[in-house]
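Collaborator request, handled under Task 6.
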Amino acid sequence: MWTSSRTGGDLSTALRFVKDPGAPERRRAHLDIPGRLVRSGPSESVRIAAELAEEAAAAVSALTKRQKDELARHLEAFGDARATGAARKRVEDRHKREARRTETEVYDSALRDVASFYRDVLLAGAGVPDDALVNTEMAERLRRAAAVADPAWLVGALERIEDTRRALARNVQAVLALEAVFMELGTPRARAGAR
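Structure tokens returned to the collaborator:
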């Protein structure tokens, strides 16, 4: 139940929480991104994008080690003869696709976490009970943000995040796409009459 509530019912995120002991800490860091953007301004977007690129590089590095072990086992089993070249090439091509998918999953996970924050702020502003929020552990912070954030801006932020997720799936330059979306998210619009 805890994993399900903390992942918004998303199966891939829940599996990552179960398999990766560092996932909850990274999720907490991702959920702090909106606060960092508001406190430090749009210039923080460059640092955040670089941090996410480092996170993705670490995930790809761990995968690459496993892939090298797999390729070594393949060479040991089948040798390095010319006849095995096509099979080895297929393994290497699969490894490239897996590395790209892993990188994209890291970015997508971070963006889903950030989106869950904005979604919860929008819901908190609409007066939903705390147990309907994904990030119940930060309900008070979400309610404070909801008191000042413009709901229309929050909807736009969610759309920009979703657009960036789709763009990353199409293989755009990740760091630039992340910098751009975080730059936009770093200038929230206040709710009319909010202080």
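The cover message to the collaborator said: "The first helix runs from residue 2 to 6. The two ends are 38 Å apart (CA to CA). Please let us know whether this matches your experimental observations."
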